[in-house]
Amino acid sequence: MTTNINFFKKELKNWYKKNRRSFEWRDSNNPWKILLIETLSQQTQIDRADEFYKKFIKKYPTPKDMAKDSKKEVLKLWSGLGYNNRAIRLHESSKILLKYSFDELYPDFTILPGVGPYTNSAILSFAYKKKIIAVDTNIKRIIKRFFRIDNVDVFLKKNTDLLLKNFNSRDFNQGLMDLGATLCTSRNPKCEICPLELSCQKYIVQENKTSKKFEGSMRQKRGRVLKILLLEKGVTKQRLSKELEITSKITEEVIESLMKDGLISISRNKVIVINDN
Ligand code: SF4
Q1: Is residue 211 part of a domain?
Q2: Of 172, 199, 226, which residue sits at a domain end?
Q3: I want to staple 169 with a disulfide (CB 3.0 to 4.6 A). Which of 90, 125, 199, 227 is the partner?
C-alpha cells in the first residue's frame, strides 16, 4: 500500500505542476475569497463559478462590504447562477463575520450558514495551510478508483498523514480537483492519458447519477419568479401565473417553496416582494 501511495503522490505532484489551472483565488490565503469561491462552485462548473467570483470579489472585497448591502442586491449579482439559497446563506455569513472574524472562528467555521465539513476543510487547507484533505466527490472518486476501496472515509482516516507527508495540502487538494474535473471524470475517464494509470486499480463503479431535467423543473420556475421580482418591486400571483404560463396551483407551490427558503414574502395586498434585509 505504501508503494502505491508514494506513486500516487509523486505522479499527482508532477502532473499538477505542469497542468494546474490558474485562478486568482488559487494562491490566496484570504478565507473570505475561499468561502466565496467554494460557495459559488457548489453544483457549478469551476470556470462559470470563476466568472461570478470576479464580479463578487470586485463588489464585495470583504465580508463587511457584503453585510452592509441588501439581500436583494446580493441576489441580483447572483442572478443566472441558480440555487439561490447559496446567495442567501453567503449574505447571512457575511453578517456573522461582522461580529466574529475568521481568525476568531478558527478552526470551526460551520457556524456560518452553508459551511459544511468540505468547505470548512477547504478554508483550513487553503487559507490556514492546515494538513487536511478537503474531501469532495472528485477526491472520493479518484481515491476509490485508484486504490480499489469502497469506504473512502475509513481509508483517509488511516492514510491522511502519509498522503500529506511532504505534500502541501493546498496542492494535494487542488491537484485532485483538477484531475477529477479533467481526466478522472465521473463518466468516460481518460485513463489512457492519466498520470496515475500505471498503478491504478481502475475500480470504476457506475455512478447512479440521474441528471434531473432543468426545463420545466421547480428549480427553473423558482429562478424565473426571482428574476421577475428582482426587476420589479412586487407583482401579483396572477401576473406570475401568466408570465410563467402555469396554473395558479403551481404558482402557489413555487411561492411556498421560495417563502420557505426566506427568499420572498407576501405583503397584505397580496403583492410578492423579495425580502430585503
Ligand atoms: S487511470 Fe483512470 S480511473 Fe485511474 S485515476 Fe486515472 S482516470 Fe481515474
Answers
A1: no
A2: 199
A3: 125
Considering its fold, how many domains does the chain have in total? 3
Residue 209 falls within a domain, yes or no?
no
Could you confirm whether 215 is annotated as catalytic? no
Cβ atoms 178, 16 nearer than 8 A: yes
Q: Which three cell numbers, joined as nine digits, stand for 105?
A: 472562528
143 within 8 A of 123, measured Cβ to Cβ: no
Q: Which three cell numbers stand for residue 41?
A: 462552485
* Domain end call among 98, 128, 158: 128
Question: Per-residue pLDDT averaged across 11-35, rounded?
Answer: 96
CB 263 within 8 A of CB 272: no
Site residues for ligand 1, CB cut-off 6 Å: 142, 145-146, 183-184, 189-191, 194, 196-197, 200, 202, 204
pLDDT of residue 115: 96
- Residue 121 maps to which CATH number? 1.10.340.30
Rounded-to-integer distance, Cα 133 and Cα 160, Å? 7
Tens of pLDDT, residue by residue over 146-166, are 999 999 999 999 999 999 999
Question: In the structure grid, which three cell numbers stand for residue 129, read together?
Answer: 495551510
What is the CA(28)–ligand 1 centre distance, in A?
29
Cis peptide before 107 (omega within 30 of 0): yes
**CB–CB of 145/201 below 8 Å?**
yes
Structural contact between residues 172 and 122, judged by C-beta atoms closer than 8 angstroms:
no
Which pTM value belongs to this model? 0.84
Does 14 score more than 70 pLDDT? Answer: yes
Q: How far apart are CA 232 and CA 195, in angstroms?
A: 53
pLDDT tens, residue by residue, 216-270: 888 888 888 888 888 887 888 888 888 888 998 999 999 999 888 888 888 866 6
Domain extent at residue 73: 30-128
